[in-house]
Automatic annotation (TrEMBL):
Pfam families: APH. InterPro entries: AGP_Transferase, Aminoglycoside_PTrfase, Kinase-like_dom_sf. Residues 42-205 form the Aminoglycoside phosphotransferase domain. This is Phosphotransferase family protein. It comes from Nonomuraea harbinensis. SUPFAM superfamilies: Protein kinase-like (PK-like) (SSF56112).
Length: 245
């Protein structure tokens, strides 16, 4: 890293921080278990991931991926339809692999947290009760038994990198574990509904679009409080919730 002129703060909050120094990303995480999951998930994932350069807890050094992120939540994506389809194909490859050996979130855990977040949003006047009630009703379709697959757990567009029409890798695996395949597809297309057809085409199998839309509402309802408490603006998630009306 000799000759580096600046350090870029990619993200920083109370739980973790990510810095970019030249072509190296330094992830600093207070939760060693979360970092352990990330390293192990990248080691067994059947799709491209960043190279682990070194690890000295609480710091994990990763090589930068070529290309750029598919997009950002709340902004139009300039990535090609083929790149989005390739992201769907990468998700299918991941989901076809054996799930990781550690436990994932249960349906009861997901439902309980959702109810708690909805109650908090209304009690604190963060969102109108009608918006919360409507989205809670939509989210109900996601609360059904699923066959656990190898999920990334946070497959948002900023975590998927492409160079032209090719996916070059996926970052941020700390939430990986057995879970619902449609949650990954919903996370990838959250706020980019117009790209859902491309992703499903690349995924290569029939999916329940109503369940994906349900996960859009569920994920957004769960995210708003966390974003506020960690100093982020939740307006993209709020926009998704308002769009369900």
């Amino acid at each position: 890293m000799a000759g580096v002129e600046e350090v870029e703060v990619v993200v920083a909050h109370q739980e973790r921080a990510t810095l970019r120094v030249g072509d190296v990303f330094l992830k600093i995480d207070a939760d060693r278990t979360r970092a352990d999951v990330e390293v192990e998930a990248m080691a067994i994932a059947p799709i491209p991931t960043p190279e682990v350069l070194w690890r000295k807890p609480p710091v994990l050094a990763l090589a930068a991926l070529p290309g750029t992120a598919l997009g950002r939540l709340g902004e139009p994506s300039t990535a090609s339809s083929a790149a989005w389809a390739a992201a769907g194909a990468a998700a299918r490859t991941l989901h076809d692999a054996p799930p990781p050996p550690w436990p994932g979130r249960s349906l009861d855990e997901v439902a309980s947290r959702l109810d708690g977040e909805c109650a908090w949003l209304v009690a604190n006047g963060v969102l109108p009760a009608g918006v919360v009630t409507r989205n809670r009703r939509v989210a109900e379709a996601a609360l059904r038994p699923w066959t656990p697959v190898f999920t990334h757990g946070d497959l948002q567009v900023t975590h998927v990198f492409a160079d032209g029409d090719e996916i070059t890798g996926v970052i941020d695996w700390s939430e990986a574990g057995p879970g619902d395949a449609l949650f990954d597809l919903a996370t990838l297309t959250l706020g980019h509904e117009e790209r859902l057809g491309d992703v499903v085409a690349g995924y290569g199998t029939d999916v329940d679009l109503d369940v994906i839309r349900a996960w859009w509402s569920l994920r957004s309802l769960r995210a708003v409080r966390w974003l506020i408490e960690h100093g982020f603006d939740p307006w993209p998630e709020v926009a998704v919730l308002n769009s369900r009306l």
